[in-house]
């Protein structure tokens, strides 16, 4: 019986010193039916030549040359050219562990629509820096409540990660729902994942560590962290695009009713990053209200979050909905004095609540 075909899509831009090792880690996989699509994104360091050389050496490798537009659009080019049943994305400076496809494809063949696995971060000498620790689990997202919980409790809290390269996708689902990357070139992996999650029900996560994520000074991630205000603006734009996508695929679903909770969690870590840089709540509020490209959309979602906060609280359980509501009320009305007073009241409420829980050893949520 012939194995299902996998399309491995690798965007390439000026990584000549890493590319051959990356591609060789795919070629050497013990899996008989795959294609490797190298999308040269306007490289000028010799990577463009190496892509052609690698294609000549192995008939499973195809090279697409494009002008430089960034990894998001390069991956879209790869999707347009792919014809495998399954899609796997990897970065051109990372490398796979042996047996990756052989380990995950059987689960896809059983009907799972996405399989997630663990990875390790390594330096240029191959030394392990850290491991991910995603637990082995099956997730059924058939019910809307379960889908929302999974997105907020598992994805945004990084219990299953959100990178492109530590999971495998089904191409028919991607094509049926017209899922593509948005050209923000920041958090495009999370955006793509959230689009895909809106269209699937069955996920499997395995504990196996199957990917080497290379940390080096020239990586895109290292450069992208330098502009946190700009990152917040980009993520807000991605959230706007995601909201439009959800409305397009599920026009009769209630997923949009819960979207404000998704929107805030999408932005939350980037808002916290501004706090860590020394921004005051007042400065962040001013930035959100006046500087974000889709600021009116952002404020509208925040207002809806506050309006439905009790419903989110009961639905999401352990998430800090009440504290989020307190912060969002400030962003909505921009009343600094009111925010300070309510903050003190909320802190007092938490102390009383935690004290009651501790004394009574109770698991009840006190509203």
Description:
The protein has 367 residues and is α/β, with parallel strands linked by helices. Helix content is 51%, strand content 17%. It has 15 helices and ten strands. Strands 1, 2, 3, 4, 5, 6, 7, 8, 9 and 10 form a ten-stranded mixed β-sheet that branches. A hairpin with a 5-residue loop joins strand 6 and strand 7. Helix 1 (16-27) runs parallel beside helix 2 (47-57), helix 7 packs parallel to helix 9 and helix 9 (228-249) runs antiparallel to helix 10 (259-276). It starts with 5 loop residues before the first strand and ends in a 7-residue tail after the last helix. Mean pLDDT is 89; it is low at 357-367.
Topology (elements, then pairings):
Blueprint: E1 6-12, H1 16-27, E2 34-41, H2 47-57, E3 61-66, H3 71-81, E4 86-89, E5 95-96, H4 100-109, E6 114-122, E7 128-131, E8 137-140, H5 144-155, E9 167-170, H6 171-176, H7 188-197, E10 202-214, H8 220-224, H9 228-249, H10 259-276, H11 281-290, H12 295-307, H13 309-316, H14 321-333, H15 336-360
Parallel strand pairs: 1-2, 1-4, 2-3, 6-10
Antiparallel strand pairs: 4-9, 5-10, 6-7, 6-9, 8-10
Helix pairs in contact: 1-2, 7-9, 9-10, 10-12, 12-14, 14-15
Summarize the structure in short.
The chain has 367 residues and is an alpha/beta fold. The protein has 15 helices and 10 strands.
Largest β sheet strand count, sense and barrel closure: 10 strands, mixed
Note the run of SSEs as H and E. Answer: EHEHEHEEHEEEHEHHEHHHHHHHH
Overall strand count: 10
DSSP helix fraction: 40-55%
The share of residues in extended strands comes to: 15-25%
N→C terminal distance: 58 Å
User: Cα-atom Rg, whole angstroms?
Assistant: 22 Å
Shape: globular
Tally of separate helices: 15
Overall pLDDT: 89
How would you describe the oligomerization state of the chains in this entry? single chain
Taking pLDDT < 50 over at least 5 consecutive residues as the criterion, the unreliable ranges are: 357-367
Judged by helices, strands and strand pairing, the structural class is: alpha/beta
